[in-house]
Design brief:
The complex is a heterodimer of chains A (254) and B (308). Chain A has 254 residues and is mainly alpha-helical. Chain A has a domain of 63 residues. Chain A is built from 12 helices and 2 strands. In chain A, strands 1-2 form a two-stranded antiparallel sheet. In chain A, helix 7 runs antiparallel to helix 8, helix 10 crosses helix 11 and helix 10 crosses helix 12. Chain A is elongated and about 75 Å long. Chain A starts with a helix and ends in a 5-residue tail after the last helix. Chain B is an alpha+beta fold and 308 residues long. Chain B is elongated and about 105 Å long. The termini of chain B are far apart. Chains A and B meet through helix 3, helix 4, helix 8, helix 10 and helix 12 of A and helix 3 and helix 7 of B.
């Protein structure tokens, strides 16, 4: 990324953090500063609105279900491009904000190869070289980045359909749909991973903080980076502490 | 826009269910037949169309031709296209009345995502219901004849209705009624095709138009407006009439095959994550608060039975 873009991103972060700081309680780690969190939820809200209004128009089977949410078909149609523009606008800032930590590394390729163990929960701990974001998160980020570009281009072509050839609109329509389906697939997984699949994750986007246990379990390399401790050693210590506590609380019966 | 009760509806755009009462009535397919060779370009049909549909007389655009404006508009459904063509060193003035073709397989209806915004009657008329229109303009890209037009003020799309309101009352369309030369006819599709064929044969044998023929493009399943042209091999001459009008595959293949597949996959995805949580379970931060004991259901049962 060019330095002027980096300077712009730096300035945006600095300006924003003047307004509100994140409270980090003892034993917690700061994961997402307030700027990132606000951006995340702006992207999320505009995406969900785009998704619902878009899927209303996507399929006849959803039309009667989803258009009432927006006051009927015409308003759903009227609002959808604006929701999309807001999504692209906010995501642009998030893209700049996360461009550096989302850089694809060898560790991510290795992570992708072990994705089966990740999905089936064979391994309770993430690979030791998993940094701030794991390979799956980066894949989702770059999917969104790609889809956002496709959404914007094809969306504008369909919005201003009176100036382009009708075949351009017809092709855009399919590309827009495919991008939406790709995003939806990632979105379902994203929400699941952020809530039910991994307890303790959701607070990273609300309070902005995570527990140490969470960090050494899911992002050990990041844990090592911010604490300077060895994640596996700290885990072993915690295990031993738990065992001794267990024994003192429940003395073994004769 | 006509009263949908007037006719038996055959197809409804973006309608997930069945069409109510489909096939319960015997309805003959109607057709407008336009003999391009006897049109004198008087524009009586244009005026009649504007009058019947109660459209305001809009500003016209002069572009060095006799044509009223470059193309049909949202409040100007019917336009005679004037083309000066040279044939055997002589001027030949081609005048074709341009309006909705009322396709048997309507591209506008295929493209429309709004339930009930476009309906097709069993008699072949394709009609827009502006109450249900959401103004997305997909119909415009679905139409091979560039007919549906967007009204930017109301954000609705309009086009020729084949005077479905008149036809429903047993009257012919307004343009037919106004035509002074008899180049416009209205009746059942079978009758019109027959008359048109006879006229084409007459042009071939008696008037020296060896290529005369009937324009009823089968690529859209035939149309409910048919032309007799001097030269059926070159319909493009007549103000851009497509020789092979087609609907984009995104409105046929993609919409009816890939779209439901995409929805199904999204639904399966939701089910998959739900049952992943139920079976595989969550990834909890380590160490877990208490040692986990995994038991087979039978062991749990046995343990319970041992107790008094």
């Amino acid at each position: 990324m060019s330095s002027s873009v980096e300077r712009f991103d730096e300035k945006a972060r600095r300006e924003f953090s003047r307004y509100r700081q994140t409270v980090v309680h003892r034993g917690e780690l700061l994961r997402h500063p307030v700027y990132t969190r606000v951006l995340h939820w702006c992207v999320a809200i505009s995406f969900i609105l785009s998704l619902l209004s878009g899927f209303a128009i996507y399929s006849p089977w959803l039309y009667r279900w989803l258009t009432p949410l927006f006051g009927g078909g015409p308003t759903a149609r009227l609002l959808h491009p604006w929701f999309g523009l807001f999504f692209d606008f906010f995501f642009l800032f998030q893209f700049l904000n996360w461009f550096a930590p989302m850089h694809w590394t060898r560790a991510d390729s290795r992570w992708l190869r072990t994705v089966k163990a990740y999905v089936t929960n064979k391994e309770a701990l993430a690979p030791e070289d998993t940094g701030f974001f794991n390979g799956g998160q980066k894949l989702y980020f770059w999917t969104i980045a790609g889809c956002a570009v496709f959404f914007l281009i094809t969306g504008i072509l369909m919005w201003f359909d009176n100036v382009v050839n009708r075949w351009v609109v017809a092709v855009s329509y399919v590309v827009h749909d495919l991008a939406a389906l790709a995003m939806l697939a990632g979105f379902i997984i994203h929400i699941y991973e952020g809530t039910a699949a991994q307890p303790g994750t959701f607070q990273a986007m609300t309070n902005g903080t995570v527990t140490r246990e969470w960090a050494w379990t899911h992002h050990p390399a990041w844990y090592a980076e911010v604490t300077g401790h060895d994640p596996r050693e700290d885990l072993e210590q915690a295990r031993r502490r738990q065992e001794t506590e267990h024994q003192t609380r429940e003395p073994s019966s004769p | 826009m006509s009263n949908p009760q007037t006719f038996q509806i055959q197809e409804i755009s973006a309608h997930p269910g069945t069409v109510p009462g489909q096939g319960t009535q015997r309805e003959e397919e109607v057709c407008k037949y336009i003999d391009v060779t006897t049109c004198i370009g008087c524009k009586a049909c244009e005026v009649a169309c504007v009058e019947w549909n109660d459209h305001p007389f809009r500003e016209t655009t002069f572009d060095d031709t006799y044509q009223t404006m470059p193309s049909t508009e949202w409040n100007y459904y019917n336009l005679i296209k004037f083309v000066e063509h040279e044939r055997d060193g002589n001027l030949m003035w081609l005048m074709r009345k341009d309006q909705c073709m009322h396709c048997e397989d309507p591209g506008c209806l295929r493209a429309c995502p709004a339930d009930g915004a476009i309906i097709k009657y069993q008699n072949g008329i394709v009609d827009f219901q502006q109450d249900n229109c959401i103004g997305c303009g997909y119909c415009i890209s679905g139409c091979p004849f560039d007919i549906p037009k967007f009204n930017p003020r109301t954000k609705k799309v309009f086009k020729c209705t084949l005077c479905s309101d008149r036809v429903g009352q047993g009257l012919e369309p307004a343009c037919i009624k106004a035509c002074p030369t008899g180049c416009l006819h209205f009746g059942t599709k079978d009758d019109m095709v027959q008359i048109a064929r006879r006229r084409a044969t007459q042009l071939q044998t008696e008037s020296g138009f060896a290529n005369a023929g009937v324009y009823d493009p089968q690529s859209v399943g035939g149309t409910h407006v048919i032309y007799v042209l001097h030269d059926i091999t070159q319909p493009e001459l007549y103000g851009g009439l497509p020789s092979n009008p087609t609907i984009p595959a995104s409105y046929t293949v993609w919409k009816w095959l890939a779209k439901p597949t995409g929805l199904l996959m999204a639904g399966l995805g939701l089910l998959a994550v739900f049952f992943h949580r139920v079976t595989v379970g969550p990834k909890v931060p380590q160490p877990e608060p208490e040692p986990v004991i995994t038991q087979h259901p039978d062991e749990v049962e046995a343990a319970r039975e041992e107790k008094p």
